[in-house]
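Page 42, continued from yesterday. The earlier attempt failed because a stray header line got pasted into the input along with the sequence. Redoing it now with the clean sequence only.
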Amino acid sequence: MIEIENMGFSINGRPILSDVSLHLAPGDIYGLLGPNGAGKSTTIFILLGLLLRDRGAVKVLGSDPAVDSGDMRQFVGVMPEKAGFYDWMTPGDYLRWFTGLYAMPVSESRLNDLLGNVGLGDSMGRFIGNFSRGMKQRLAVARALATHPQILILDEPTNGLDPKGRKDIHDLLRAYADDHGAGILICTHILDDVDRLCNRIGILHRGRTLLDGPLADVTGRTTGGRLFRLRVEHSPSAGDLPEGLAIVSLRGGWLHVRVKPEFDQDVSVLWKEAIERGWFIREIHSEEAGLEELYLRTISSSETVRPENATWKQ
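This time it went through. Structure tokens are written below.
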């Protein structure tokens, strides 16, 4: 749905983006991460045809936004960082007006569904100027969904929401991606949103893509169970293994093991059993990198190991 390869962009000869790549497929929820000034907003502007790249390939729904942005934009729902609502309108009036711009007038039942799904069903008659920041965030999500887009591009969609509000928006976006085969691109600094919601991530730093790949692969997660590496005095035989462990490999003095999913919630029981079976365990390390650790390591280091099925650019 979105394909960006080696994109570059400059202003007055000053490079803003030098090498950006991004891949979004139907049903994906993609978290685009990076510090302030990394180039995330510029990338979005180019995707929408609001800025013209200098080089590289960009396709949105099969079209080049530099050539065919007008037709393409009607299939893209956007939630910018600043909502830009009219305070003297009610949310119902605003969404009726907004969908009219696309020649897709919203029915009353659809309007009720949109506002109900984002938690504003009881605020239909209130003026937007009296809304809290969180309520305006909810309305911005409803606006992005109002035209049945094939792609959603959302900038900080849960900013200002309480924990329940964040979960409601997570559930809504996940259901929209699953039910409609839509692709969703989220720019955010809230790593927990990415961890809970996204199946792919990209990390931008100083106008370059450092990472673009499936979240599970780049963090070392797997549906087959968590991975650990152990330094032990001797290599245990298969008969010495606790039931919940499986040996993956022995490399460089480290024993790599997989914890079966049914034992994932209480791994300490397995280490206790292993010690009772005669293992002399000197060190235990999880092979799964937390998202925060992955993010900080990626933007601070120029040398990384590339996980399978992920693209790293250094």
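Notes: DSSP finds ten helices and 14 strands in the chain.
Reminder to self: strip header lines before submitting.
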